[in-house]
Amino acid sequence: MAVSPSRKALVVACGSYERSPLRNTPNDGKDMHALLQRMGFQSTLLMDPANLRTFSRAVNEFHDLLERGDVALFYFAGHGCEFKNENYLLSLEEPEEDRELPQCAMNVT
After folding, report:
1. Which are the contacts of 102, defined by CB distance < 8 A and separation ≥ 6?
2. Cβ-proximal residues to 79 (8 Å cutoff; 6+ apart), any chain
């Protein structure tokens, strides 16, 4: 008998940036998390990760929960940018200079 795949989601919402706060992203994250739960996803919500280490840990833990055949969804609400043809999602740790992005932002390229 085949087992139906699990539906798992990680929702990350960053809004409390020091230099350029985002008003709506916390609500976007909470709303998406609630919607995914109603849709049967095992959803984890991470609000305002302080730094890349916290952000990376959540992504790695999510990855470790996935099993073959699972449906996985990642949702991010917050600042993102491109630098040297690489794409980044920013935690609350904002770089002083663009070249510092790899040390404080999630590379998603």
Report:
1. 86, 88
2. 14, 17, 20, 22, 89, 90
Q: Return the amino acid letter for 72.
A: A
Task: Quick: pLDDT tens for 5-50.
Answer: 799 999 999 999 999 999 999 999 999 999 999 999 999 999 999 9
Closest CA to 28 of 13, 39, 8, 45: 13
- Long-range CB pairs of 28-33 (<8 Å, 24+ gap) are 28/77, 29/75, 29/77, 32/75, 32/77, 33/9
pTM for the full model? 0.92
Task: Give the SS3 label for residue 53.
Answer: helix
